[in-house]
Design the sequence.
C-alpha cells in the first residue's frame, strides 16, 4: 500500500539508522535549517560532503566567489556525493544552501567569519556569516557528515612562537572527528610548526597521491613531509573509516596537491607573500583579519595567478573529496552500519520515489495578443529560456515538496548541460548521464496571449539513450521505491523493463504519457498491465484506447459536462487492470477514476494487487481559476498537478487532499515563467495551506 512506507532492509542496504533521530534532535530546532535534499540524503544513507562558506564571504571577490561556489557544489554532485554548503543566515545555521542563499552570502558586505567560538553571539544577534574550517567541522559533526572539503586550512602563523597566533582549525581537528580534505596549509603560514602542532593534537595527517610531501595550498611542494600517504580514494576512505571506528575523537587531515598545470610559480608566490606580510605588519593587521588581507594582497602582487590556482585547487579538492565520501559510504554499507551508531540498534530505512524521464531546455515564447498571426509575420512576444522535460518537472516539483526522488535521465555534455545541473542542484541528479557528442533535448513552445499552447517543436533524440541497460544499473533504487514515475519520452524497451521489475516485485508504477504520439508506448504490449496509475489528458487517453482497440469518438467535446462524461467512459476499460486513472483536463481541473473503497475512490494501491470488484467511481475536481493575464506558462502545470498528488499519496493523505495539493501546485505553475514554480514548497503546498482556500464541491458518480 502506498502511504507512509516503512521498510526493514538487510544490513547491506539499510544505512538510515540512529543518526536520523539524532539529526532531528540537533537540526530541527530554531538554530538549524537543513536543506530537504541534504536531509533526505542523510536519512537514506547516501554520501554527503560538507563545504565551508568563508571562501564565499571572505576568500574571493564577487562574482568569482558565487561562480566558484556553484561550480564546487556541481563537482561534488558530479562525482557521486550530495553537497552541503554550511553557512549562517540571519542567526540560523544552514546545512545546505539554496542558490539564492549562496548569492546573499556572496554579495553581502557585512557578514562575519564564524568559528566555533562565534556561534553563540552570531546566532543570538541574528547575524549572517561564512563558517570557517573550524566552524564548518563543528556543524558537519553535529549533522553526522564525516567528510568536509575546503581549500586550505589555517595553521600556526609565521613567528607564531612569539605571538601564539594559532588557528582554531588546528584545535578543532584535535577534537572533532571529521575528515578534512584540503590543499594542505596555506603557504602564508609556518607549515613546519603547523604539522608539529597537529601531531600534538593527535591528528592523523596524510598526503594524497604519489608523494608524501605535504602541499602548501597553491604550491605543490612545501619542503615538509607528511607522516603518512594515501595513494587513492579507497585508501583514504579506509583510513577515515578506521579513525571513526576507533572513536579517537580527533579528525583526519588529507592534503591534496594543487593540480600540476595550475600550480603557481613558487618563487613568484613566495615573494608576494613576504611583501604582503611586511605590509600587514606595517598596518597592524592581526588575528582573523590577517588571512583575508594576505590572500587578497598576494593575488594582486601575483597578477591574479594565486586566485587562478585557488579556484583550481578547491575544485580539485571537491572532486577528490566527493570520491572519498563515496568510497567511505561503500565501506560503511558493507559493514552494515555507520560508525556513529549504537550497537544492535535497528531503525527502518527511508525509501525514495524514482522518476525516469526526459530533461529539456525549454524556450517559451508567449505572444502579447490572444491570436497569433501566421504567414511569416513577427508576433510581439516575451521569450524566455527555462528547464523542463516531463520527468525533470516531476522530479523538480517533488523535490520542492520535500519528497526528493532519485532521478534517472540522460542529456548531452554540451553548452546546456552545465546550466541544467546548476539549475537542478536542489534535485538528486545522481542518475543523470551526460553523453559526449549528443545534444541536450530542446523544446520550443509557442503560447498565445491567453495562455494556450499553439505549437511545440522539439529535438528529443537524446531520450532514446535512456536505455534498459542504463536504467538497470539502478535496479536497487527501483526495488526500494514506494513509487516509480516514468514518462513517455523513455524508449518502449525501457518502459517494458520497468514494468517487468514492477510485476516481479509488486511495485507501484505511474505512467505520464507526455503527448499523444508517445502516450501508447506501454500499451503496444501487455506491459501496461503492470502499471498502477496513468495520468493522461483527454487526447492521450483517446490515443491509448485506440491502441487497445476500444471504440473512441472521432471528435472530442468542448462543453465541460461532455468532456467529463467522455473522459470517464474512456477511463472505464482501463480500470480492469489499472488501480487508478487520473485524467488532466486543463482549465477544467482533473478527473479521478478508480475503485470504490469505504465510500470513496482510494488512490492508495495495495502493492498493485488487482481487486476483483467491478465497482468503479469517477470524481471531478474543478481547477483553481487563474486569470488569463496571469498565466505565464502552461507547460508545467500538468506535471505540477501530478507531482502534488504523488506528494500527498506518499504522505498517506486521502484522495481529496492529494488532488487539492496537486491543483494548488498547478495554479502556482501557471503563474510562473518556469515550468515548475519556484514558489512551490512543502509549506506553501501543504494540508494547512489547503484550509485557507474555499474549494468547490467535487462531483462523484458511479461508472457503469
Sequence:
Amino acid at each position: 500500500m502506498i502511504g507512509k512506507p516503512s521498510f526493514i532492509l538487510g544490513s547491506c542496504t539499510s544505512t538510515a539508522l540512529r543518526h536520523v533521530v539524532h539529526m532531528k534532535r540537533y537540526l530541527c530546532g530554531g538554530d538549524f535549517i537543513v536543506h530537504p535534499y541534504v536531509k533526505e540524503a542523510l536519512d537514506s544513507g547516501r554520501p554527503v560532503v560538507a563545504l565551508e562558506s568563508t571562501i564565499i564571504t571572505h576568500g574571493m571577490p564577487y562574482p568569482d566567489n558565487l561562480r566558484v561556489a556553484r561550480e564546487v557544489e556541481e563537482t561534488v554532485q558530479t562525482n557521486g556525493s550530495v553537497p552541503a554548503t554550511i553557512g549562517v543566515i540571519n542567526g540560523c545555521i544552514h546545512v545546505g544552501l539554496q542558490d539564492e542563499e549562496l548569492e546573499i552570502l556572496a554579495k553581502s558586505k557585512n557578514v562575519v567569519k564564524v568559528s566555533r567560538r562565534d556561534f553563540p553571539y552570531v546566532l543570538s544577534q541574528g547575524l549572517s556569516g561564512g563558517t570557517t574550517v573550524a566552524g564548518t567541522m563543528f556543524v558537519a559533526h553535529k549533522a553526522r557528515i564525516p567528510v568536509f572539503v575546503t581549500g586550505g586550512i589555517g595553521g600556526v602563523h609565521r613567528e607564531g612562537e612569539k605571538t601564539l597566533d594559532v588557528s582554531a582549525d588546528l584545535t578543532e581537528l584535535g577534537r572533532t572527528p571529521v575528515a578534512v580534505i584540503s590543499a594542505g596549509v596555506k603557504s602564508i603560514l609556518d607549515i613546519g610548526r603547523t604539522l608539529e602542532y597537529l601531531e600534538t593534537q593527535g591528528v592523523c595527517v596524510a598526503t594524497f597521491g604519489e608523494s608524501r610531501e605535504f602541499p602548501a595550498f597553491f604550491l605543490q611542494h612545501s619542503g615538509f613531509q607528511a607522516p603518512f600517504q594515501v595513494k587513492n580514494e579507497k585508501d583514504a576512505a579506509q583510513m577515515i573509516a578506521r579513525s571513526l571506528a576507533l572513536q579517537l575523537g580527533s579528525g583526519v587531515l588529507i592534503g591534496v596537491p594543487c593540480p600540476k598545470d595550475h600550480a603557481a610559480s613558487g618563487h613568484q608566490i613566495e615573494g608576494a607573500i613576504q611583501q604582503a606580510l611586511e605590509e600587514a605588519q606595517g598596518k597592524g593587521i592581526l588575528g582573523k583579519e590577517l588571512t583575508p588581507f594576505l590572500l587578497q594582497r598576494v593575488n594582486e602582487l601575483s597578477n591574479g595567478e594565486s586566485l587562478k590556482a585557488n579556484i583550481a585547487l578547491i575544485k580539485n579538492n571537491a572532486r577528490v573529496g566527493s570520491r572519498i565520501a563515496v568510497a567511505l559510504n561503500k565501506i560503511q554499507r558493507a559493514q552494515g552500519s555507520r560508525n556513529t551508531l549504537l550497537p544492535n540498534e535497528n531503525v527502518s530505512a527511508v525509501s525514495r520515489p524514482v522518476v525516469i524521464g526526459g530533461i529539456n531546455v525549454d524556450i517559451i515564447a508567449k505572444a502579447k495578443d490572444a491570436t497569433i498571426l501566421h504567414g511569416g509575420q513577427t508576433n510581439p512576444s516575451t521569450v524566455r529560456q527555462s528547464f523542463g522535460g516531463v520527468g525533470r518537472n516531476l522530479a523538480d516539483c517533488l523535490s520542492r515538496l520535500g519528497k526528493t526522488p532519485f532521478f534517472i535521465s540522460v542529456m548531452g555534455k554540451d553548452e546546456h548541460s552545465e546550466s541544467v545541473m546548476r539549475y537542478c542542484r536542489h534535485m538528486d541528479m545522481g542518475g543523470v548521464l551526460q553523453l559526449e557528442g549528443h545534444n541536450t533535448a530542446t523544446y520550443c513552445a509557442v503560447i498565445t496571449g491567453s495562455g494556450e499552447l499553439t505549437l511545440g517543436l522539439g529535438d528529443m533524440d537524446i531520450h532514446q539513450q535512456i536505455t534498459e541497460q542504463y536504467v538497470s544499473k539502478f535496479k536497487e533504487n527501483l526495488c526500494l521505491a514506494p513509487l516509480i514515475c516514468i514518462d513517455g519520452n523513455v524508449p518502449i524497451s525501457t518502459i517494458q523493463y520497468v514494468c517487468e521489475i514492477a510485476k516481479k516485485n509488486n511495485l507501484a508504477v505511474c505512467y505520464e504519457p507526455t503527448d499523444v504520439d508517445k502516450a501508447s508506448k506501454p500499451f503496444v504490449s501487455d506491459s501496461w498491465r503492470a502499471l498502477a496509475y496513468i495520468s493522461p489528458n483527454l487526447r492521450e487517453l483517446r490515443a491509448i484506447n485506440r491502441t487497445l482497440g476500444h471504440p473512441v469518438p472521432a471528435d472530442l467535446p468542448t462543453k465541460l459536462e461532455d468532456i467529463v462524461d467522455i473522459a470517464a467512459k474512456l477511463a472505464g476499460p482501463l480500470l480492469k487492470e489499472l488501480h487508478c486513472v487520473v485524467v488532466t483536463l486543463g482549465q477544467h481541473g482533473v478527473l479521478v477514476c478508480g475503485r470504490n473503497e469505504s465510500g470513496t475512490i482510494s488512490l492508495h494501491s495495495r502493492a498493485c494487487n488487482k481487486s476483483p470488484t467491478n465497482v468503479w467511481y469517477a470524481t471531478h475536481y474543478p481547477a483553481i481559476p487563474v486569470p488569463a493575464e496571469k498565466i505565464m506558462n502552461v507547460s508545467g502545470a500538468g506535471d505540477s498537478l501530478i507531482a502534488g498528488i504523488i506528494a500527498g499519496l506518499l504522505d498517506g493523505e486521502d484522495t481529496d487532499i492529494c488532488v487539492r495539493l496537486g491543483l494548488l501546485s498547478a495554479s502556482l505553475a501557471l503563474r510562473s515563467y518556469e515550468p515548475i514554480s519556484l514558489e512551490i514548497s512543502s509549506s506553501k503546498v501543504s494540508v494547512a495551506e489547503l484550509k485557507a482556500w474555499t474549494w468547490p464541491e467535487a462531483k462523484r458518480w458511479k461508472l457503469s
Q: What stands out?
A: The chain has two domains: 18-335, 354-703. The CA atoms of residues 370 and 449 lie 4 Å apart. Residues 354-703 form a domain with the UDP-N-acetylmuramoyl-L-alanine:D-glutamate ligase fold (CATH 3.40.1190.20). Residues 1-29, 337-350, 607-611 have pLDDT under 50 and may be disordered.
